[in-house]
Amino acid sequence: MIPDIVLFIILALVAVASAVGMLFSKNAIYSALNLILNFSSVAVLYLILGAPFIALAQVTVYAGAIMVLFLFVIMLLGAERLRRSETLPYQQPVSIILAAILAVVAIYALLFRPLGIEAASVANPDFSSPAAMAEMLFNEYLLPFEVTSILLLVAMIGAIVLTRKRQRRVQR
Amino acid sequence: MSLDPSAILVILPEILLVVLAGVVLVLDLALKDEQRRLIGWVTAGGLLFVIIPLLFFFRPGDNPTLYWGGAIRVDWLSFVFKLLAFFGAAITAILAMDYEVIGKRGELYLLLIISTLGMSVMVMATDLILLYVAIETTSIPLYALAGMRTKSDKSVESGFKYLLFGAMASAIMLYGFSLLYGMTGQTNIYALAELFQQAELSSSPMLYGSAIIILVGFTFKISAAPMHFWAPDVYEGAPTPIAGFLSTSSKAAGFAVLLRVFLVAFPEYAPQWGTALAVISTVTMTIGNMIALAQKNIKRLLAYSSIAHAGYALIGVSVASVLGVTSVAYYMIAYLATNLAAFGVVAIYGRIAGSDEISSYAGMSRRSPTLALVMLVAFLSLAGMPPFGGFIAKVFVFAAAINAGLIWLAVVGVLNSIIGLYYYLTVLKVVYLHRSENDEVPLTISKSSGFALGLLVVAILLIGTVFAPWFNWAAQAALGL
């Protein structure tokens, strides 16, 4: 138990620090790298909770694929060289008020549970094991899985259709 | 669960559609530019090849059956709406062949087929996960189709707007689904329905919240107020046959899902959401018709008219009775044929006249009496005049409202029909009475488009006169829900 708690505290500190670092770094690349650190530490938190599949999905999908996308966008748009744009005058007070409301609501929900939802209980050990996931995915959810494959294919084709320059074919 | 052959057989139409999509993609590579029109015929023929066995051999039995772990339900509702989606796609493929440049691109037909596949899964799905995936499979090709004329700013704007609005609406809807799952641990809507009958869940404010959020996603798909803003801009910029497809098949599939989810999962709360939908229906009809009065562009006019029609059909949903569901199904059958014909005429004439302004329709009746006649039939049917399909459809919807004691709603519907009649007749006046300097230039309609329009006119007349078979279908759809 105790090593778990120590590990949790370290990871939580890393996660919070990297999140803050992401918000405050001036350079977009540093922000992105901080975000990767944040994702990875959260992934290890999932491991501690006994959810290996979600942990690995977090690493591959968020820290891997989505971050590559972010870095590409930053690179292509040259966002790291952009000057600090002017913020809207009302942005700061509004954001502070909204953040305060969110904090109050979150604390209220946590302490008083107005909707009568109980605290999360420890999940069944094989609830999200890769084997259980796979069994569910390829039995009960086989059809949605297959439809998803078509969905991804058509999304790709759609993107190509919209972006490709069509060359006139030379008439023979 | 081992795969039994009957489960494969149930999704055979969908498998065939995937095959057809592959064939279309290969044909696009293999054919030369001048032969590419063939792809449209292949698409339409392939869809017909799917429709005919479905119609004759795969009729659902009297008892609905579940397949794929309860994720798919084969009943009359899915059967009827599936046929509508296939029919709409086949007609759209034929009309799209004449569209310059993109009508010769195989990708257009591929996207069309996959979107149809999504609709066909959508109307069968009883599992929220499958439902969501199917809705996305329907929508994503439509975003690409709407923006396919990349040279035209309007079309790009249309595709982009549709993508942004659509992604937002489905994100909100998905959030609603996730709340339902969070409350119950179930994703099957029939299982959800059983759980909601328990006392402690039924009074939960979360339930109302998630139902409202889900409704946002559905009203977007059927373009009902207040989620209708995208429709006019998207229809105006999208290629006209695609706009027709968006306003018919896509909308019909949206109604099927709305009926299934709300009537099956939340029947206990029918008074509450029925009232909400009645209000939405009133607002939708009124906004659609009022703004349509001021339109100068025929595609925008048809967009607002299609918003109004979503309002009429919502009357049938809001009464939440068997007659109500029957009337919605019938309305969608009639509306699909009618609106496809209207958009078909606009597609043909817009291509020749080079403009979608209503004023450019002056003298159309002299340039092509047949095309003007088709337009007359379609617009009168939209306005709800006998002996066309739109009349019977409206009668059933209003009858459902009166039967449920919602007389005020029927009155609002009738008043709105009168407003509708005015702007449909205004367009017909331009077509028949106004003159233009091009009066003597006859229009040539390609054989394919002529065939499609002929088919639609026959369908409109059949739906309006010999209504027993269609009504039986609709009634069975309602009973099997």
How would you describe the overall organization of this protein?
The complex is a heterodimer of chains A (172) and B (481). Helices cover 72% and strands 0% of the residues of chain A. Chain A is an all-alpha fold and 172 residues long. Chain A has 2 domains: 1-82, NADH-ubiquinone/plastoquinone oxidoreductase chain 6, subunit NuoJ (Four Helix Bundle (Hemerythrin (Met), subunit A), Up-down Bundle); 129-172. In chain A, helix 1 packs antiparallel against helix 2 and helix 2 (28-48) runs antiparallel to helix 3. The model of chain A has no long low-confidence stretch (mean pLDDT 83). Chain B is an all-alpha fold and 481 residues long. Chain B has a domain at 266-481. Helix content of chain B is 76%, strand content 1%. Chain B has 21 helices and 2 strands. Chain B has a two-stranded antiparallel ribbon.
Q: What are the salient characteristics of this protein?
A:
heterodimer, A: 172 residues, mainly alpha, Four Helix Bundle (Hemerythrin (Met), subunit A), extended, B: 481 residues, 2 strands, 1% strand, globular
